[in-house]
Amino acid sequence: MTEVRVAVLGASGWMGRVHTMAYQTFPHFFGTGGGTARVTALVGGKSASPDELALRAPGAKILGTWQEAVADPEVDLIDICLPDNLHYEVAKAALLAGKHVFCEKPLADTAEQARDLADIAKAKGVITRVGHAFPRNPVHDRAKEIIEAGEIGEIKLFKGCQHVDMYGDPSAPFMWRANGDLAPTGIVGDTGSHVFSFMEALVGKVSSLIADTFVITDKRPVVDGVELGSETVLTGEENWADVTNPDGAHILCAFANGARGVVDFSRVATGRKFRQTYEIYGTKGSLAYSYDEVNRLRFYSNDDPVGRRGFREIDVGPEHETYGAFLPLPNFALGYNETKIIEAAEVVRSIVSNKPMWPTFETGHHICQIVDACMESSRLKRWVDIS
User: Residue 1 — very low, low, confident or very high, per pLDDT cuts 50/70/90?
Assistant: First the structure.
């Protein structure tokens, strides 16, 4: 058994809390054969309470800066749950220090930065991972099996979306996610990268696209201490800040394999608390998925008899090894936290075995290329090729 020593950066935020929990939890489900993890260091934000952080990972050092974590010889893996604009700087420093790196999406602000990170990781021979958790739900393994077995034939069309209503209300308060300095690509890198990860995993590489990115509400009130999901009441005395990155996007794309895609996503879809879907149409059949039925896939096949054709429901269950690690019965629903536990287990197993697992920084580079192309296409109002 090998132990991987982890430093979680941004440990006081939502994602940092999830990652910290995942490293401590995954052996309960997946055992210790693939290695174990020990959270040896936590770095919170400026307002983080050291005492509160200490309770989340007993025995971990509470450090003041990410630089201390990167320099710590007792840390093997740097886990980055920081605002987008810090990903490149921190990941590069960690890689140059010879650390393995698990970075939340988007990997970097630009594809050029992501390429640099992937190249350094290759030269250093370290394990990398990008936090595209949604495709690690076992239901998407089943979709990939069906596709690779040729059961839906040659893929011709992909349709995908992801919508939330975080900013549906024009008076919803300003957060770092709406700040183009802290999150330069806005919803394109935040939510769009989730849809792009499904495209990458199930269909293939995007070769060109045309995109329209947009801002729906251009100013929002500033409320001290606001976090994602928190309730606020405005006093009327607030300052207002400019929203300087996209609220949503509409995209048409072409894949290298000849398939076409239609994609949309936003953070302003009032009433859509979390809407994530994809449809994949082939020459022999199709697949359809909705997060509202998180472990269910719908499969249509032309091989069914005439008069009996229709979408059948496939509920992923304990026959899938990863699902079975959590639950003994199908359709009990694995949620978001479980996908993060799966990620943590896979990262540790990758480090212990020295075998990279999807999605690595190479994957992150291509997804950043799609993000770059969306931003450029919208600015230039034309199709953009991706090399």
Answer: low
Cα gap 93→71, rounded to integer Å: 9
Confidence of residue 350 (pLDDT cuts 50, 70, 90): very high
CA–CA–CA angle 33, 39, 43 (5° rounding):
155
Q: Residue 232: is it exposed, middle or buried by C-beta count within 10 angstroms (0-12/13-18/19+)?
A: middle
Task: Name the nearest CA neighbour of 285 among 139, 156, 145, 197.
Answer: 156
Q: Are 101 and 356 in contact (CB under 8 A)?
A: no
Determine if the peptide bond prior to 359 is cis (ω within 30°): yes
Return the ∠ at Cα 329 (arms to 326 and 332), rounded to 5°.
75
Question: What whole-number distance in Å separates Cα of residue 216 and Cα of residue 200?
Answer: 28
Say yes or no to pLDDT of 230 above 90: no
What six digits make up the tokens of 361? 């920084």
- Collect all residues with Cβ–Cβ distance below 8 Å to 120 and sequence separation of at least 6: 92, 95, 96
Using a cut of 0.90, tell me whether the model's pTM lies above it.
yes
Instruction: Print burial letters for 296-307: b (CB count within 10 Å at least 16), e (below 16).
Output: bbbbbbeeeeee
Cis, peptide link before residue 106, omega less than 30° from 0: yes
At which residue do the structure tokens 């770095």 appear? 43
Rounded CA-CA distance 365/355 in Å is 19
